[in-house]
Batch of 4 targets.
Target 1
Amino acid sequence: MKIGVTGASGHIGAALTRVLIEKNYNIRVLEHNDRRGFEGLYVEAVKGSLSDKDSLNRFCAGMDIVFHLAAKISIGINSYELLRKVNFEGTKNLVDACKKSGVKRFIYFSSIHALKHAPLNVPVDENRPLLKDGRSGYERTKALADEWVRSRGANGMEVIVLNPTAIVGPYDYKPSLMGQMIIKIYRGKLPLLVPGGYNWVDVRDVALAAANVIEKGRNGERYILSGEWQTLEGIAQIISEITGKEIKKIMIPMFIARFGVPFIYTWSKLTGRRPLYTGQALEIISHANKNILSKKAERDLDFKARPLNASIKDTIEWFKNNDYI
């Protein structure tokens, strides 16, 4: 079986590519501008992008299944137009190329942020409506692509959607925003923490469930892949316990954090570094549902989330072994 993977240089893509290779599938990746996630692996690489239709046609030719992970992830530092071009229009371009090439199954990685979290006192499951009117451009564009893929994109091609929560774990080559946060907490460079948190899930568990979609996923279904809820303060405490280091943890009220966002944004522009605290990030972290269910994926895809402590420990170990910390 021949399988294509977009976004193989990203966190989930790098882990998924390794799982698929272990299962002896023939893998082709779409190489954009970074190959660290699959460097040295036995894969075929096709250079291109989601806006280059010719490269997408070459990428999809002869593929049986395509996993679509490539996306522009943003928490307030990119324009809506750019996010729409990549996350929505790029997805449409890829689906068109898949249909031209006769791809049988399209597996789309959406996000938990594409689903509405309110009301917060009711658990989130696959029946939640899409957040097409969200304040974040990332949320809106992922929700739009999610809706289009499931309702109008298939046209005879099987489509399955995956919605993972916040990702941690090894193979975070770029590193991701969550990886950067863990690195900064470890180094004591993020002493000011805000209230709120995320549902965290290990990238290896997500990758294994995604690979299981090939044989076990049901056409037209959505699967949430979630793990364990934890606050930023709790993450800092876990890192402190794992490493034996004293981690500075100064909690600041959310209104003070919001007041400081313009200054953080200006500083990020001057230094060229992506800010972890933006207005949209604070909005997400303070209005995220604490109870996100993955029972459907557990039943259909044999999904099982490992303890968060183990994931954080392995993440730090991987960052150490690869000279990130």
Target 2
Amino acid sequence: MTDGSSRHEREEAARREALRTLDQLRERDDIGASALTRAARRATDHFAGKDAADDRIELWGRRIGRGLSLAAFIALVIYLYVTYVAR
């Protein structure tokens, strides 16, 4: 009879995991949200450093580094445009 109860426990655990996953998906993305909205939200989370741990120094280090990399990218694009396209 232990096989029946352990099977029931496994099925119950799988059901709880499935419900938890569905709740996470429901919170993270709306079905009607566009791909552009999701991409903008991901970029905002990336530059805000939401993937950092609870360490405040690490959080601000990531924010500063990512901001500087964005500024360098924009400067490079402007340089390449002025050098090769605007002639």
Target 3
Amino acid sequence: MVIPCGCAGDKVPHASHTTQKTAQMSSSAHDSQESSSEEGEPSAQVPPSRETTKRSSGKVRKDHIGQGAFVIEFKNPTAPRNMILSPVQPAGLNPSPSFEGKNRKNVENDYRGMERKGFRVTSDIGCLLPDDRFGTREAGATLKGHQRTFQFFAGWRPRGPESGQPAVVNSRGWPSNLEISHLCHRPNCCRIDHFVAEEKWRNQKRNYCGLNGQCDCGNPVKCLRPYQTVESAPSLCKTKAEVTAVLDGAPPFTMHAPDHYEARDKKAETRRKNIKDRKRKQEKHAYETARKQSRKHRGST
């Protein structure tokens, strides 16, 4: 954040005035604390805090289904999916270690947590659009939808250069660190067969594809549709039959009813409520204990 400097005509308080004002504020705060102590009340007499209400997974899913999302569950991959589709070996090929064991379970949880919120499905080429919190251009989840999808199906994820390490470049000096390219040109899409792992310079070339209405970026792996800088809201599938048709060629999946995870949601809500109630009781107990000790101290003086 840039803080503007004071101009010549601005009035800047003298340092002594600032120090005096700070001392007065500090003195007032000290007097207030002493007054509270003389009355025998605890110094931090603040009632137990109330947590900010957050949307539950069930509420998020319900809202997303209201926007046209379908509950789609993909089967666990039997083997890591090959994402290096170019016949030319990438200069920046240095995939992260495979996710195995506990890490693999965390990867699956990350993906399933997003998947259970449902996907909107575009009617043109079957892009899977997750809840907005997983979008690349929206504030929300730190690990975005395309990253969760890639590591779930591929078992690794392209990363930039380590801190302090130089970026990978090819013989021409072009940036060659691996990135996740969207062949559909929809950055929020979470369909794994719409992705390819390729060098950064190839990914950037796709931003200038489709001038003549077809893929003309020159990459060995062709785009699925022309690039569009500004795109209006895509047309979405409205029936299961439409979804099944446009997802032809995608990994095996099952379509569930909108209330498929209702029992799971109720268990999670009960567990969340029990945790909140227990925390609230602990806060109340600590608060009452502080009051009793304060009254006892007042009675002994």
Target 4
Amino acid sequence: MIRLIIFDFDDTITDNSFLDYNAFVTPCKQLKIKIPQQNEFIKLRKKGLIAKEIMMKILKKQNKEDMLSEYLELRKKFLIKESIKYLILKKNTKSLLNYLKKSSMKLVICSANNNKKRTIKFIKKNNLRSKFSNILFMDDLNFHIDNQQKNNRILIKSSLLRHIIKTSSFKKKEILYIGNSDEDKTAAKKNKIQFIYFQNTYLPNIKNKNTVCSMSELQIKIKRF
């Protein structure tokens, strides 16, 4: 029986597709870079490319490679200051969390992102703070590494999960982790806990025996554990 559920945040509880696209568009407008169609961004995201790699391809086509560092700086500022305006809670998230709380599940958020203030603000804005007993970020374990690198994300997620498991009173078989990436899957495997993969339309798909595409599917899947 599952008693503790650990949620990843970005693209698991939230839909980041609108935010991600605008994080490309806004700096492009500021720098007068020709903005490709959204489906072009999606195709590149589906290949697993990070923002820097995507913009390198776009700028190369326009012979503007020298604008990359300036672009990335503007993108960073946008994500810090404006992202909460574009971040969307996934449909039926509140219903699922209410159901889990009523079922006496302990809920925790575990995120490798380094924008804790934004995340806490978003959670409070959507009246979700009371649903979670704890919210942990890379900064909480004093990680100061590039979270855009895959191996670093695995290290961060594995360490966060290990900390949650160690400080909880639950056995590993009573713990479930829900995430949206291969790094999440690897971190769960390293810590020997069960994992559900939340698939997103604009991100790379991974092979996983327990996969869902919506909160409604997730609720059904959790009932079967």
